[in-house]
Amino acid sequence: MEKTLQVLNRLERDGVIERYAIAGGMAAMFYLEPILTYDLDVFVFLPPTPSRLISLSPIYASLRSAGFSEQRGHVVIHGNRVQFIPAYNELVEEAVKEAREISYGRTRTRVVQAEHLMAIMLQTGRPKDRVRIEQMMDQAEFNQGKLEGILERHGLTAKWRSIRRKVRP
Amino acid sequence: MNARPGVNRLVRRLFKAKEAERRRLAALPFARKVAILRRMQRQAAKIRAVAVRNGMRRRTPRTSSRAFKSVEGIWKQRAPDGLTYQRRVRRE
Questions:
Q1: CA distances (Å), A160 to each of A29, A64, A132, A148, in order?
Q2: Cβ neighbours, 10 Å, residue B21
Q3: How far off is chain B from A52, nearest CA to CA, in Å?
Q4: pLDDT in tens, B44-58
Q5: Could you give the ipTM of this predicted complex?
Q6: Which of A12, A25, A119, A133 has the fewest C-beta atoms lying within 10 Å of its C-beta?
Q7: Which phi and psi angles does A47 have, rounded to 5°?
């Protein structure tokens, strides 16, 4: 895992990506008990291109030249299946900008903050996201005021109230 | 009415213990959790290998369910004609 994170840091240093933050199941696991997940989801800011089209090709090309292979939309980096997801809306952009700096062994990396992760799960709304929100509410340390601010800014307050009623009636 | 007084208390204690264990795991360092995840992935791969050997294909392994390995599990799997084995036997 540490080697994988070093590769991500190298991509950032080389300017292939502008900034990244770990998200998805792996980020949830940072705040929760270990949960079974198979890939490492990474939100990325891509450098602007003249055509203004979003393309992951530079990332894939760079990793291919470093000897890593692609597998069904993922790149296998030192045994970890990494999925690069360009920041697709304002909430995700904010999550990447304000991601938390952590150390993994001797490597520095970034993980999406608990409050942003919960808001993203709420926005995505798949059954497994709802389960994880419930787990986050039980196990993770998060700032209620900060979460409410994020939900308000991104129009998720009503959705949050409805899910809260179901989880903690 | 509970036929065995004390059972509810026991169940409550078990749930509390489980909850405490969850919190303990959640508080572990990230690297330690990733090591546990690797073990979980290996275990899931083994279960999947058993399932595939038995001709039961699933896209994702259900590690949380013992049913996957048990007789009831097979009973609820789908036969090649799309019916569950349970329904198929009933039809036959």
A1: 21, 41, 14, 9
A2: 11
A3: 37
A4: 888 888 877 776 655
A5: 0.82
A6: A12
A7: -65, 145
